[in-house]
Structures are given as C-alpha cells and as structure tokens.
Amino acid sequence: MQEGMGFTPQLTASSIAQMLWLIPAVPMAAAGVIALLKQPARKLASTLAIGSLGVSLLLALAAFGHVVSGWSHGFSVRETANFVWLPMGTGTVDLGWVLDPLSAVMLVMVTFVGLLIFIYSTGYMAHDENYTRFFCFLSLFAGAMLGVVIANSLLLLFMCWEIVGLTSYLLIGFWYQKPSAAAAAKKAFVTTRVGDIFFLLGIVWLFAQTGTLLFYNHGAGALEPDGIAAMLAGKGALGLSAATAIGLLIFAGAAGKSGQLPLHVWLPDAMEGPTPVSALIHAATMVAAGVYLVARVYPLMAAGGTLSQGGALAGSTTTLTVVTWVGASTAVFAALIAVAQNDIKRILAYSTVSQLGYMMAGLGMGGVAVGMFHLITHAFFKALLFMGAGSVIHGCHEEQDIRRMGGLRKEMPVTFATYAIGMLALSGFPLLFSGFWSKDAILGSAREWHAGRGPFYLLLFGALLTAFYMTRQVCYVFFGEYRGHEHAHESPRVMTAPLAILAFFAIALGMLGTPAWPWFRAFLEDHPAALELAGFNEPGFWPLVATSTLVVFLGLGLGWWLYGNKSPRAEEADAVEKVAPTVWGWLRDRLYVDELYGVTVIAFYAWWARVADWFDRRVWGGIVAAVSTAFRGLAHFDRFFDQQFVDGGFDKGCEEIYTGGGLLARVQTGRVQHYLRLLAVAVVVLAAILIWSSRG
Amino acid sequence: MTPLGGYLLVAALVFAIGLAGALTRRNAILVLIGIELMLNAANLNLIAFWRYGPHPELLTGMMFAVFSIAVAAAEAAVGLGLVISVYRHTRTTDLDEMNRMKG
Amino acid sequence: MSAVFWILAALTVLGGVAAVTLKNTVHCALAVTVAFAGLALLYLQLDAQFAGFAQILVYIGAVAILVVFAILLTSGSETPKQGIFSRSWFTGMIIAAAVFAVLGWAVIQRIQALPHETAAPSVTVNQIGNALLGRYVLPLEIVALLLTAALVGAVIVAMHEKGESK
After folding, report:
1. In angstroms, what separates the C-alpha of B62 from chain A's closest C-alpha?
2. Residue of A312, A389, A408, A421 with fewest CB within 10 Å of its CB?
3. Contact criterion met (CB < 8 Å) for C76 and B20
4. A38/B contact by beta carbon, under 8 A
5. Separation CA A494–CA A485 (nearest Å)
6. CB–CB of A670 and B102 under 8 A?
7. Which of these ranges, A149-153, A232-236, A651-655, C150-154, has the smallest mean pLDDT?
8. What is the rounded average pLDDT of the residues C83-91?
9. What percent of chain A has a predicted confidence (pLDDT) above 70?
C-alpha cells in the first residue's frame, strides 16, 4: 500500500486549499449579522443562513472535486495551509486547515445535510416567535462544525469544538422557559465538559511531547512519523506509552461529544430541543464530530501497531482496543434501552447513541474508511428519520408519545414512505439500503478482528435489537389506528421535500461501499478503485451477508409479530412488558445510569458543595469576621489610647502649664521691693560669673 | 591696701547700705533715699577711678560723675513727685500695702 | 591711706547706716545729708573739686531738701504702726550683704593690681568748661533736655488733679 503520507507534487497548497477557511467563515459571519437583526426580520435571517450555508456547500463541492481529481490521477492529496498564530519565545503556536479525502467527504456531508435541515427548519419553526435567534444559532453551529472538520491544528479543532458545544447548549435550551429544556442544556454542556477536560489534557500532553499542535506540517506535524515516534517514546502512566495515553485522553473527549457509554446521558435529554436541532446536531453532525476526531487522529491511535494488507491493522493497539470495546458496549446498551421507550424522539436518540457505538467500533477494528462510511450513511438516514419524526410531531399537533399516534401512513403518505426508507436503512435491510453496506463493513472487520470475537457478537445482537425497536416504532406510529386527539395532517412541501432528497441518498450512498466497487474505502485509503464484480467473491463475504440478513429479518419479524397492526392504548402494557415486566421496567428506566450518577457523582458534588459552603461561611467568613473584630478592637484600643494618653496627656500638660503659670505669677507680688531684690540677686550672680571667669 | 582699693571698698559698702535700705524699709521715701545712696556710691567709684586711672586729664570720670549727679537730681524730683501723687490716692507711703499690680 | 580718708569714710558710712535704720523719717533724711557731705569731702580729697562742690550744691542743697519736703507732705514723720522695716527685711539684708560680698571680692581679688599713689591732676574750671562744651556737648544738651522733662514731669505728676480736694 502506498504510504499515506505523500504530498501533491507542488509543496504549496492549491488556491482551493488556501480558500478553505471561507467554508466555516461564511456561516459564522452570517450568524454575526443575524445576531444584530431584530426579531421581526425572519425572512432575512433565514435567507442569510441558508444562503451562507449554500455558499459553503458550493465551496465544499469544489474542494471535494479538487481532491477527487487529484486522487483519480493517482496523487495522494493532503494539502495544508498553516500560519503562525501565537509566537511564544522560541516556539510558536500555529493554526491551519487541511484538505484531504477525509475532510473533503465530511465537508460535503455537513454542508449538504445542514442545508437540507436549514430549509426544513423554515417550515418547522414557522410558528415560533424566536425564529431569528434560531437561525443565528444554527449558522453559528454550522460554521463551528465546519471549522472542526477543516482544522489542521488540535488547538483550532478544540476551539471550534467548544463553540460547537456552546451552540449545542444554546439550541437544546432554545425554549429556555421550559425548565426541562434548560436542565437538559446544562446537562449536555456539563457532561461533554467532562470529556473535554480529558481532551484538553491530551492536547497539552501532545504539545509537550511533540512541540507542535499541527497535524500535518511538511514532516513536522504531530501525526507525521517524527511526531508519532516522539509520542511513542514518551512515558505515560501504568506502563503505557505517551502515545497510548494521549490517544485515550483524546478518545475521552470524543466519547463525551459522541455519547459513548458513561457519558451518553445527555443525548436523550437533548431531545428537548426543536426537532431540526435534534436532526442536525444530535444525529448527523455534532455527535459525528467525536467520530471524526478519532478518525482524524487515527495515526496516533494506531501508533505502535503493524499495518497489514488492505490498510487494517494486524493485531490492535491498546487505544483502539479500548475504542472498540467502548463502542460495542455502547451499541448494545443503547439499543436495549431504545426497545422500551415511548417518546418518538427518545427512541431515535438512543438509536443514535447505539449507531455511534457502531462507528467507534468500526474505527477501532476496521480503520478510518469503515468507521467514516457508516458515519456518512448514518448522517443521511438519521437526519431523515429525525426530520420525519418532526414531520409526524408537527402533523400530530406537537404530540410526541408514540402510543397516541397510529395509522399515520394514510394521513401522511410522503412522510411514511421516506420514514420507512430511513428505518430500513437504519436496520440494515440487505443490499438495497446504504445502512446495510456500511454496517456490513463494520461487521466484516469485527469478524476478522485479531483481538477477539466479542465485539462481533455484541454488534450482531445490536443489529437484531435495532431492527426490532425500529419496527416497533414504525408499527406504533404508522400502522394500526390513530389514538390521538386531533386530526393528523401531512406537512408542507418545504418540510417533505428535504425528506425525499435524503431518502434518495439513503439508498444511493450504499453504491459507494459495495465490495464490487469500494469507492469510498479506496478514496479514503488512497488507492485506486475499480469496479470489479469479483469483489463479491471475497472470502467470507456471502456468509457474512447471510448472517446479517438473518439477524435483520429476525428482528423485523419479531417486531411485526409483536406489534404488527395492533394499536395498544397508552394505558395498556406493551407486548414485551407483558412477557418480562421486570426487564421491561429496567429498560424503560434507561438502565438507571442517570440514577447511578445521581447517587454517586451528583451526590458527591452536592456534598462537596455543602463542604465548600460550610468552609466558606465558617472558615473564610470566620476569618473575615475575625479580621473585622480585630479591627474594631483595634479601633476601640485606639480610641482609648487617644482619649487617655493623647487627649489626657495634652490636657494634663495644659493643666501643668496653667498651674506653673499660677505658680510663676506668684513672683508678681506687686511689691516693688521684691522686684528690686530679684534685680540685686541677678546682679550678684552675674558679677560672680564674670569675676570667676576672668579669674580663670 | 592701695588708696584706690580703699575708695572702692568704701563705695561698695555705701552701695550695699543703700541697697539694704532700699530693700528693707517700708516707707517709699526711704527707698528713694537708699537709691540716692547707691547712686552716690557709684559716683564715688567713678571719681576714684578717674583720680587713679591712666588719663585723668581727659576728665572722663569727673564728667561722668557730674552728669550722674544731674540725672540723679532729676530722677529724685520725679520720684518724689510720684510718691506724693501716690500718697494722695492711697493715703499711705507704706510699700507693703501697695500691691495692686499683683499677678 | 591717710587718716583723713578713714575719718571721712567712717562719716559717710555711719551717715548711710543711720539713714537706713533710724525710725523717724526726718532723721533719716538728715542722716543722709551727712552722708552726702561726707562723700563731697571725699571728692575733695580725691582732687575732684568740681564734683565735690557740685555734690554739695545739688545733693545737699536740692535733693535732701526735696526729700524733706516730700516727707513732710506725706506725713512721713509719723511712725508707721507695723514698724519701719518690711515683713521680709531679713531677706533684703542678706541680699545686700551678698552684693557687698561680691563687690568686695571683686576688689580684693585684684587689689594688688590697683595703681598706687599717682600725681594729683590739676583740673581747672577752664578745662572743665572746655570739656563740657567740647567733648561732652552732646551729653550736656541731653541732660538739659532731661532736666526740662523732669521738671515738667514732676510738676504734672505732683499737681493736684481737677476736681480733687486739696
């Protein structure tokens, strides 16, 4: 395999790469302008936002085309444009952006899906009075996300990462008057913060080990051979090398943002935000940022392991093993919980968490191409599903409980059709849908993983559950009888058109990942792609297809059998609940992760806050009170001193002078003879002195 | 004992006597008498020094004494006038009783 | 030191002592006149004839008379009830003695250095007149002023004020 570290023949970046910064800058500028607009300027705000993202899309397509043309001519494209940002003594902190296949595909996906969601939002948020503010935050988010994608510097990536987190908070808590929305926004921010702290530690450590934060810098970057060697040589904790430790720290940040197992608790609560927000941020883009980060620093994660044919690792590194296991466990954990949820968006939220686990596992076992392929396909069909859910909610007059819906395939045919396509793609319905191909790629690499078969079985079980709960959801919502209050209606064209577009891609993208024409993998891993039907004859291909097909049909069948055309009322128990009520209870209560946090972390934090409060009041407050008492005592002492000694002394002195004066006045007897006597005495004394001195 | 010494001692003695009188007698007029004695003693001193001094032809001492006599006379006149005036107001010449200027 | 000197010195001193110790004020005035006379004679002894005669003329002839007049005008001839000496007469005596001691000490200390007999100067009235109007003309004029002022002042001081009973 060619070394993936080649450069285009010209060492300087092409003009497209130089202009790459415009892609995030234009939406951010639009956000700035919208922020200054007044609330009634709705049309202007949405036009600015959509226009700016459209410009970004065009630029992204141009960049993508440039990379594709370079790749198809056999070059390995990785163009960087770096600049000095902060000179610090002898060293500098540089920022820059990079244009390579990875960032190119991500750019196109983010701008395209983002644009569709923006258009969708003009319809969904049409009745909201804070329309302008919504588009301001959306634009800012889009700009920041694109900044994460193009960043060639960990620092720039982190800065945009934080802005993404901020806008996520702003958008989740968009309806801030609702206490649950405000709480959910805070929860999202704090939970991702926990991950971000580890991320920051990793960044600092990386800088300490390699002296640079740039990924690629003509041989001097952190992800280039010298940088990786420096990190491998460094000492981490517990006998790990610095490279492993840094990789794990960075993964912790990615785990927070992408809702991996211990830090997933914020994602379901984030459904408090408007549905376009859930579609954009919590399905397609922001949560994908964590996966993208792991893909970006993959050379670091894979450091120390040996490469084999086809680009996958022979064996695995510690970091990637951790990534895989976390991903696989998250996939199953979230899928289990999704089975017992009743809110249409919650099911999709847990589904997202589960699929993110798949992506992480794919990255860990199969490399960048495998994980990214699933990320791209997932973005399209998850956005489709969320927007479809939004359409359903809109049509059912803001109802979100699936037990109060039903039979909507008659009233909302377009929504139903597109939603069904998305659901089948997510479940991995064989051959036709993109989800099948991307999930199969992950399962394939899991089966061949040299470090064990555990993740493979977990992921298979997860696929079963995915098919099952999606069928359950579709049956509850679209089949059976309508159990809601008011009449449901189809959504306007501005909302259903994007659904149709996404549905098309949910099918078409699968074409890029078949073994017959593994275009996507070839593009990302930098070797030529040819259409060869012989790819279908790879060893293990058909058995794998058979296994996954079996699993998917099993899940679909089970779901249809249990939920089919029945429409249980909200008060009735669920079909599974009747069979296994305790397990159902656990699953419905989200396996008590939040409660666990409440007992441990939050309780500890509350205790700590009480300690700090006591400390503040008693100790610091005590010190302040003591100081003030000391001062008052000093003031009293001063007053006493002043009164007694200074005033008293002065008064005494004056008294003495008075008395002395009185005494001296006695000399003035008024009798001349006495005065004369004094004169005589004075004369005697003077004369004596004179005589005495003259004698000597 | 040189002659000059003798004269000086006599002058000193007369001076002291005059002072004693000025300091101890009640009557204001007797105080003035004492003062006259003191002045005279000083005059004697002057004359004695003139006589036994280096340049008697300059007449310094004698002139001084003559002027002193003149001034003493004037002063005696004024002083006695004062005593009479005070006597008219207070009907007494007893100095012990005149302490209106007491401090 | 001739005998004349001692006699005259004794006369003067005794006159002085009598002047300050006698009870009757008039007797004191007379005693002081004797002292003045003794001093005048001492001046004559010292060849200061002009000064001696001036002493006799002025002191005995004017001051003593003035004193007697003052005594008579102030009923000084009566003996005061409380005695002739003031309450704290002893202190005065001591002070006077101290003064005499100091002066005597000053003299006796240097008594060896004092000049012995020298030639008697011959002083004529002509010389005195020349001196008065020559070298000492300024003091002369001032004394004239002084005497005038004293004269006027004494008159004013001793004059009966308006409205007062005579």
Report:
1. 25
2. A312
3. no
4. no
5. 25
6. yes
7. A232-236
8. 80
9. 93
CA distance C154 to chain A (A): 20
Q: Is A221 helix (H, G, I), strand (E, B) or coil?
A: coil
Question: Which residue spans within A315-389 are E strands per DSSP?
Answer: none
Q: Could you tell me the two tokens for C113?
A: 């250095």
Alpha carbons B10 and C38: distance in angstroms, whole number: 12
Average pLDDT over residues A197-213: 89
Smallest CA-to-CA distance from A472 within A565, A333, A582 is with A565
Alpha-carbon dihedral sign for residues A222, A358, A257, A128: positive
First CA to last CA distance, chain C: 55
CA-based nearest residue to A507, from A417, A400, A413: A417
Weakest mean pLDDT among A9-13, A419-423, A604-608, C7-11: A9-13
Nearest CA in chain C to A693: C106
Asked if residue A128 lies in contact with residue A196, where contact means CB atoms within 8 angstroms, the answer is no
Residue of A nearest to C101 (CA): A684
Please count the other Cβ atoms lying within 10 Å of the Cβ belonging to residue B100.
Answer: 7
pLDDT in tens, A128-153: 888 899 999 999 999 999 999 999 99
* Separation in Å, CA of A672 to nearest CA in chain B: 8
A267 in Cβ contact with A282 (< 8 Å): yes
What pLDDT, in 10s, does the model give residues C30-60? 999 999 999 999 999 998 999 999 999 999 9
Spatial CA neighbour of A101 closest among A520, A515, A529: A520
| Residues present in chain C in total | 166
Taking the CA atoms of chain C, what radius of gyration do you get in angstroms?
A: 20
Q: What are phi and psi of C125, to 5 degrees?
A: -65, -30
- For C24-70, the three-class secondary structure string (H helix, E strand, C coil) is CHHHHHHHHHHHHHHHHHHHHHCCCHHHHHHHHHHHHHHHHHHHHHH
**Helix intervals (H) in A412-517:** 413-427, 434-447, 454-478, 493-508
Cα A294 to Cα A255: distance, rounded to the nearest angstrom = 10
Contact: A680, B23; criterion CB under 8 Å: yes
Q: Considering only residues 51 to 80 of chain B, which have any Cβ-Cβ distance to chain A shorter than 8 Å? A: none
Q: CB under 8 Å to A355, separation ≥6 — which residues? A: A331, A374, A378, A382, A426, A466
| Short-list A354, A308, A304, A310, CA closest to A329 | A354
CB A433 within 8 A of CB A424: yes
| Residues in chain C within 8 Å Cβ distance of A691 | 102, 105-106, 109
Helices (H) and strands (E) counted in chain C, each on its own, are: 7, 0
Query: Which tokens in the block code for residue A261?
Result: 């197992």
Please report, for chain B, the start and end positions of each structural domain, with discontinuous segments joined by +. Answer: 3-97
Measured between alpha carbons, how far is A61 from A64 in angstroms, rounded to an integer?
Answer: 5
| B20 close to C (CB below 8 A) | yes
Q: At A637, which amino acid appears?
A: F
CATH architecture of B3-97: Orthogonal Bundle (1.10)
> Does A503 score more than 80 pLDDT?
yes
DSSP assignment, residue C161? Answer: P
Q: What tokens does A213 get? A: 């934060």
Write the CB contacts of A126 (distance below 8 Å, at least 6 apart in sequence).
none
Instruction: For residue A635, give both structure tokens.
Output: 């003031």
Beta bridge partners of A401: A343
**Cβ–Cβ under 8 Å, residues A391 and A417:** no
Nearest CA in chain A to C86: A673
Q: Is 0.95 exceeded by the ipTM?
A: no
CA distance A619 to A612: 10
Nearest to B4 by CA among B71, B40, B52: B52
A515: its two tokens: 């073994």
Give residue for tokens 């002894």.
C45
**CB-closest option in A673, A684, A695 to C109:** A695
Which chains pack against A, by 3+ Cβ pairs within 8 A? B, C
